[in-house]
Amino acid sequence: MSGTSKLFQDIDSQYGDKISTMSEESKMLVGLPYLANTEHLIRARVKARRLQNEYNKTQPTSVLDDTTSGAALAEGQNLMSEDRKRLLSQLLELPPSQVAKVEIEPPLYVDYGTNIKPEGAFYANYNTTILDCSEVRLGDGVLFGPNVSIYCGTHSVSVKERKQGLERSLPVSIGRDTWVGGGTIIMAGVSIGKGCTIGAGSVVTKNIPDWSVAAGTPCKVMRTLTEQERA
């Protein structure tokens, strides 16, 4: 039995006879089998699609013109225009103050948006995909290269379960000051520690401890940062 299958089995056992009283969204957020095509979840995804489509059409800050001084250019490097900040606040359902240090280059793709939890400064380059059927926690100072994908959503290996239309999901967390290289895929249930570097093109299927330099498919720890390299 794989680690994920064992985790799902443990979750099923933990909730037992409570499952029948839970909403599909509640099941989704704790890793139980759930039906994604209920009215509430469909409406939530449609709302997210509309907001992300608006976000992806926005223009960057308007400071970049031929007459702008060097100092103003340096100050305006943050490409989050007021439209982008407003739409991101709505998409993540977070107050503007909580997304003030978040920079995400369009295009951005999400399932719900509301389960993405930045804990401070966060930068993501082009074409970020976050399937946030579960909580995605992003520590202060996390950086994404282009084409990074986080897949919280998954399916059971049981064909019977899939034919019933059931899906599964597990949370993902990334610790502070971690850099995720371009083209990396982070799978459901993964926790990446603080101060890590994940090499471009990696597929992260298991937890990565603090201060690790890791890469590969599947992603493996190559070395641990020395005390002098940590902050």
Automatic annotation (TrEMBL):
This is Related to galactoside O-acetyltransferase. It holds the Pfam family Hexapep. Keywords: Transferase. One of its GO terms (molecular function) is O-acyltransferase activity. Belongs to the transferase hexapeptide repeat family. InterPro entries: Hexapep, Hexapeptide_acetyltransf, Mac_dom, Trimer_LpxA-like_sf. Coiled coil: none annotated. Residues 25-96 form the Maltose/galactoside acetyltransferase domain. It comes from the Eukaryota. It comes from Ustilago trichophora.
